[in-house]
């Protein structure tokens, strides 16, 4: 009987250690599943939100009709002759056009003003500039946000000379080619700089404006393009191509998903290694 006591103590200790190991593994598994659920839920919600934004943008574009050009000219007439341009933010947003850039898979509605409400979901026409319809001696200007949780104008900095910009104004489809972007720093100006936005005799110009650099408001990027004959090649932007504008966010999402998964795999691998050495 005295010889039994040490063995009983060892058995009890082994059982206790095994019990605590099981609890630790169970806790680790619960933590892994919880992290995975949180990350997947966050990514899923983000994806759903972006799909809703994309869907609304397409609805706004599809609502565009021949009245768009009329609305645009009326808005411009209201602002012409004023020193600060009438604040149209409180007026109902009206879709007057659409801008499409194949290189960056961008397709946005253009609204009749550049208020905060307009720039949250699309691009805004600058009422003090020329109408979107184009023509000799015109220079239309379109504003768009960068760095938000939506692509908008974030990637127009990737555009270079010769890249195509398609503009839908009413029922007309116009094509422009970038002319002022040879390298990355071209077209970057102070927020108050407007000399390059004036019309030029005989030319039909279009300029896209956004904050620069990314996530800052210190400067403005002006991407200017000139009118060329429409080639008929403008295509619909798919939702998956639209998602590629979120490449930074997608990389972060993959990393967040990979961290708990890798931690779980490493834990399993170490456990198997420890069992093999026993």
UniProtKB/TrEMBL annotation:
<feature type="active site" description="Proton donor/acceptor">
    <location>
        <position position="145"/>
    </location>
</feature>
<dbReference type="InterPro" id="IPR005754">
    <property type="entry name" value="Sortase"/>
</dbReference>
<dbReference type="Pfam" id="PF04203">
    <property type="entry name" value="Sortase"/>
</dbReference>
<feature type="active site" description="Acyl-thioester intermediate">
    <location>
        <position position="211"/>
    </location>
</feature>
<feature type="transmembrane region" description="Helical">
    <location>
        <begin position="28"/>
        <end position="48"/>
    </location>
</feature>
<keyword id="KW-0472">Membrane</keyword>
<dbReference type="GO" id="GO:0016787">
    <property type="term" value="F:hydrolase activity"/>
</dbReference>
<protein>
    <submittedName>
        <fullName>Sortase</fullName>
    </submittedName>
</protein>
<keyword id="KW-1133">Transmembrane helix</keyword>
<feature type="transmembrane region" description="Helical">
    <location>
        <begin position="250"/>
        <end position="269"/>
    </location>
</feature>
<keyword id="KW-0378">Hydrolase</keyword>
<dbReference type="InterPro" id="IPR042002">
    <property type="entry name" value="Sortase_C"/>
</dbReference>
<keyword id="KW-0812">Transmembrane</keyword>
<dbReference type="InterPro" id="IPR023365">
    <property type="entry name" value="Sortase_dom-sf"/>
</dbReference>
């Amino acid at each position: 009987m005295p010889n039994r006591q040490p063995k009983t103590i060892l058995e009890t200790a082994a059982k206790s250690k095994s019990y605590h190991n099981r609890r630790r593994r169970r806790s680790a598994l619960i933590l892994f599943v919880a992290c995975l659920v949180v990350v997947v839920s966050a990514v899923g919600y983000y994806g759903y939100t972006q799909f809703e934004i994309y869907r609304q943008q397409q609805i706004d574009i599809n609502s565009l009709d021949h009245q768009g050009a009329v609305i645009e000219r009326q808005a411009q007439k209201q602002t012409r002759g004023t020193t600060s341009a009438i604040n149209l933010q409180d007026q109902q947003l009206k879709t007057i056009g659409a801008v499409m850039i194949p290189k960056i898979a961008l397709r946005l509605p253009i609204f009749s003003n550049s208020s905060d409400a307009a720039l949250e979901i699309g691009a805004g026409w600058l009422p003090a500039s020329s109408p979107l319809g184009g023509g000799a001696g015109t220079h239309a200007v379109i504003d768009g946000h960068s760095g938000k949780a939506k692509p908008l104008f974030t990637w127009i900095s990737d555009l270079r000379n010769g890249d195509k910009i398609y503009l839908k104004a009413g029922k007309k489809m116009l094509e422009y080619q970038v002319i002022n972007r040879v390298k990355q720093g071209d077209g970057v100006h102070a927020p108050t700089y407007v000399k390059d936005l004036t019309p030029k005799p005989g030319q039909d110009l279009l300029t896209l404006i956004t904050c620069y650099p990314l996530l800052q408001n210190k400067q403005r990027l002006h991407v200017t393009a000139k009118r060329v004959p429409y080639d008929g090649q403008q295509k619909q932007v798919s939702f998956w191509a639209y998602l590629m504008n979120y490449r930074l966010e997608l990389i972060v999402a993959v990393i967040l998903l990979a961290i708990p998964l890798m931690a779980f795999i490493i834990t399993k691998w170490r456990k198997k290694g420890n069992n093999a050495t026993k």
